[in-house]
Amino acid sequence: MTQPSVILATASYDHTIRFWEAKSGRCYRTIQYPESQVNRLEITPDKRYLAAAGNPHIRLFDVNSSGPQPVMSYDSHTNNVMAVGFQCDGNWMYSGSEDGTVKIWDLRAPGCQREYESRAAVNTVVLHPNQTELISGDQNGNIRVWDLTANSCSCELVPEVDTAVRSLTVMWDGSLVVAANNRGTCYVWRLLRGTQTMTNFEPLHKLQAHDGYILKCLLSPEFCEPNRYLATASSDHTVKIWNVDGFTLEKTLVGHQRWVWDCVFSVDGAYLITASSDATARLWSVSTGEDIKVYQGHHKATIDEWTKNHN
């Protein structure tokens, strides 16, 4: 079977990962994931592999294969892996876990290469576009910048004491970082280069986006320019799209019946895909706020997804 031009992958608490033909909504491959639920999915930069973050391991699957087995397993976390991502060349992977650590893995060698202690359950980790700093957010409300060159924590912020940082996102050009918390608040900072290599955070905006938890915040990609959006997915069943210029509300996406755990923009920022505890993923038009497609097939909460275009 030829690969669809645009693929969507979703994972669920029903212990499966599903691959969908994005345009038709047809599920064409299901991988059983019996060991645990999947907390997060991420695609490698070359679009060849899909990382599934579970409890307490990370498994790497071949996107273009039909085989059910992972091609690699990463096993030194001791609790739920909540964040996973890749360096831009795909040489290494980073992860964050409820065991309180951030880890770096060389994809060409077994085992964990580095470990950083956050001293609280890590909910979210993002890689700065400079590829030399990781930013993590934890259950105690700490945001930490890990300088990979100096191999140390270069900056620590606590936007709201004892309020868990649920999600972090960095603008593609490294100009902004947004942290979303359990009280429905987004904190926005300008990122400024200091005299050293260290990034400085300059407070820019505080956005009361939702009344419930924000489970995911995401800034739009480079090819969305000149429009810049912030998407916030919430326990209030909605996703809101904010214009970064002034942080005005552009659209509220209504249709999910339960908590919305995850969202991802299409490459050009014209579409948003969301995943919810109502066991569906939905494709939305950012310009109209309408849902175009519903992906149904999971039996429990759906949490993560990504899209890709085959060139």
From TrEMBL:
Keyword set, alphabetical order: Endosome, Repeat, WD repeat
WD repeat ranges, renumbered to this chain: 1-30, 74-108, 115-156, 207-252, 253-294
SMART domains noted in UniProt: WD40
GO biological process, one term: TOR signaling
Gene Ontology cellular-component terms listed: endosome; TORC1 complex; TORC2 complex
Subcellular location: Endosome
Pfam families for the chain: WD40
Gene3D superfamilies, per the entry: YVTN repeat-like/Quinoprotein amine dehydrogenase (2.130.10.10)
SUPFAM superfamilies recorded: WD40 repeat-like
Keyword ATP-binding: no
SUBUNIT field: The target of rapamycin complex 1 (TORC1) is composed of at least RAPTOR, LST8 and TOR.
Record's function text: Component of TORC1 complex, which is an essential cell growth regulator that controls plant development. Acts by activating transcription, protein synthesis and ribosome biogenesis, and inhibiting mRNA degradation and autophagy.
UniProt-recorded name of the protein: Target of rapamycin complex subunit LST8
